[in-house]
Amino acid sequence: MSGKDEAPEYGDIPGTYVFDGRHSRRGYHLNMFCMSLNRQENREVFRADEAAYLKRYPLTSAQRQAVLERDWLGMLRLGGNIYYTFKLAIFDGLSMQNVGGQMSGITEAEFKNMMIAGGRPYKEDQQVSAAGGCADG
Amino acid sequence: MSGKDEAPEYGDIPGTYVFDGRHSRRGYHLNMFCMSLNRQENREVFRADEAAYLKRYPLTSAQRQAVLERDWLGMLRLGGNIYYTFKLAIFDGLSMQNVGGQMSGITEAEFKNMMIAGGRPYKEDQQVSAAGGCADG
Amino acid sequence: MAKITAGVGTSHVPAIGAAVDHGKTAEPYWEPLFSGYEKARQWLAEAKPDVAIIVFNDHASAFSLEVIPTFALGVGAQFQPADEGYGPRRVPPVEGHPELAWHLAESLILDEFDMTIVNEMPVDHGLTVPLSIMCGQPERWPFKVIPLCVNVIQYPPPTGSRCYQLGKAIAAAVESFAEDLNVVVFGTGGMSHQLQGERAGLINEEFDRDFLDGLTADPDALAQIPHVDYIRRAGSEGVELVMWMVMRGALNADAKEVYRHYHVPASNTAAGLIVLENG
Amino acid sequence: MAKITAGVGTSHVPAIGAAVDHGKTAEPYWEPLFSGYEKARQWLAEAKPDVAIIVFNDHASAFSLEVIPTFALGVGAQFQPADEGYGPRRVPPVEGHPELAWHLAESLILDEFDMTIVNEMPVDHGLTVPLSIMCGQPERWPFKVIPLCVNVIQYPPPTGSRCYQLGKAIAAAVESFAEDLNVVVFGTGGMSHQLQGERAGLINEEFDRDFLDGLTADPDALAQIPHVDYIRRAGSEGVELVMWMVMRGALNADAKEVYRHYHVPASNTAAGLIVLENG
Ligand SMILES: [Fe+3]
Ligand SMILES: [Fe+3]
């Protein structure tokens, strides 16, 4: 199916969903839904009935479920981009550290403490998760 | 006022309003009004009361008058761009030859015949109008 | 491997589209123009491209002065005909080729062309009239289309040289796409015409014929024509011809002319058409 | 004659703006960051620029996936703070400099950069947080601003090399503007951070310090860092640092560092700031 004959050079970076064309195509409507929350009137309608509001966007059922369940990692795997999905976190009143903790499997407090201690260390060989990377979800 | 210290190289071309930045700034709202006629609902409102519709756009009074009088050359001189102002001609059901004739001071039939005869001839030194060019209106 | 096999240069005058849409192509005014299109249509029917990259400009339809991209590449799956003031043309929607288009976008940006990537845009006569010219009135357009929209309304458009270089980068990008695809590139707009001002109606047949000749004789020289020369000699709207330079750049240096047609007038424009093939 | 006199590189973390807006800058968490900004603010107050060209990225505020410009230059007279989901920041509107901005647009396009010209766009934290960092909370921003918005969200962003070249072209364009203007260029975003995925929270202080050193020691080498290196070593959002390369390119080769500050963390980002001056 794909016209590309090789894996992208960033394909081996663990726990990282590079928002390339393939990813962007998959997540187009999911991200456009998230962006719609920039508008106060949309936030109100979404707050009143999330599932009804989501019908405005042709999401896959997996995407719809990931939104309703606030499955932050799931949204990324289904084509979400963090700048878009974070609109939903803003809507929920969550901080970037909270969501960062949820995506990396630790609590918000643990995440904050990790950052205060200098952040997640970079190591050439780091392997934060076998499930990460750019593979299809 | 101007940060530019020289006349543009296209400044001596007669009867020609190059849509550069200066021109575009002057005609911004005039052109945005014209573009709004792409939408059927806007066309209907404009048709019902032209002057009232124009109040939606912060036009200068000279621009407003040029629109109401269908002064095609005046619109160009006030920052209009032909692709935008032609939306108004489409609204009026006018052809490009009709408007071309009006701008060059001949009838639609004369303009059509000029085109059938090969168009307005290009001559290095042509001087179709002293009033043309890119000078401020 | 995908491959660019040919290029088409053609005017995209709205009145040509209207003549098709309203069944006027056999009328005396239009017949000389349309009879000259026949051979190009036959050529296209035999060439059977899978995808056409259509280089065109938007005429205050999809884009306004709010946001003016120099090069906008359409990566969407479908593009609807625009309402230009009299309702959308009743032509089929344009089917995109998102996979090749995204490949182009990525490749071109990494190749240091500053593309605007566009998922949603209606397409106006700039794109649909060339389809009508080359394909007539089919139920569906016979190939996928990747719209490449160039700003030529707000001065300055990209230079002819930049357009030519973009064409070369497009050729390289297409050839690095693994799927077998027969790709044709359309350069549209022009030829000499001026719609605006006291000089409206300008036509410069000599300029146009030199330009058509130059596409095979010396495209490098053609790419050096500055905007002021286009505006002065080919009319303020004749600068649309820079879009033909994208098409030319996408072909091999030794591409051959297989057909041309030139007719004055179509509305108030000199209508030209050329077909070039890679050897 | 207009002249670029200095450059500022700074992170643009939204939480920094929130700390300013909600009066938290003296709290223990924020104090070490903000105390390091003091000298830069003093420098700016003395430098008294007339215009700042602020290179930033939009974060799904003005632009969406519908239309993704690689380089969007704001030529409007005013830009309002964007609603990013919690209402617009209560900071002054940003006053543009349409005359210089249009001059830049024309000059850059003729210099073969494929700019998108933008008249209307709300500006988000990417632009307003650097203003807060450098200016605090004035009634009005003390200089005009030309927003230069770079795509760094949709892969691929423009290469570091392309950004560096754009900076050089901006310098040439500014110097051909006749009015006397003191112009400063801001490069914003970064430094190392990753917001997304299982690897969220990545910080690479060594990368960041090398980057800050390289801005004066060997910017040509810095400009060659490929995207994959940024993503791997500085985190997926660390690639924002290409925007600092526009700033660096706009300065003279021998520009001097006059101040720097580096602090971890600001939210989940390594916050860096550097001031460079032309000799
Ligand atoms: Fe056109
Ligand atoms: Fe950012």
From TrEMBL, chains A, B:
**Where are the annotated coiled coils located?**
none
Protein name per the record:
Protocatechuate 4,5-dioxygenase subunit alpha
Highest taxon of source = Bacteria
Enzyme Commission identifier(s): 1.13.11.8
User: Keywords assigned by UniProt?
Assistant: Dioxygenase, Oxidoreductase
Task: Cite the GO molecular-function annotations of the record.
Answer: protocatechuate 4,5-dioxygenase activity
Give the organism the record lists.
Exilibacterium tricleocarpae
Report the InterPro entries cross-referenced here. LigA_sf, PCA_LigA, Xdiol_dOase_LigA
Using the record's annotation, list all stretches that form the Extradiol ring-cleavage dioxygenase LigAB LigA subunit domain: 30-115
Q: Name one Pfam family in it.
A: LigA
User: Which taxonomic lineage is given here?
Assistant: Bacteria, Pseudomonadati, Pseudomonadota, Gammaproteobacteria, Cellvibrionales
From TrEMBL, chains C, D:
The Extradiol ring-cleavage dioxygenase class III enzyme subunit B domain is annotated at: 9-269
One short Pfam name that applies is LigB
Q: Which InterPro entries match?
A: PCA_45_Dioxygenase_B, Xdiol_dOase_suB
The UniProt GO MF terms for this protein read:
ferrous iron binding; protocatechuate 4,5-dioxygenase activity
> Which UniProt keyword terms apply here?
Dioxygenase, Oxidoreductase
Q: Is-annotated flag, keyword ATP-binding?
A: no
Q: NCBIfam families of this UniProt entry? A: PRK13364.1, PRK13365.1, PRK13366.1
This protein is called Protocatechuate 3,4-dioxygenase
Organism whose genome encodes this protein: Exilibacterium tricleocarpae
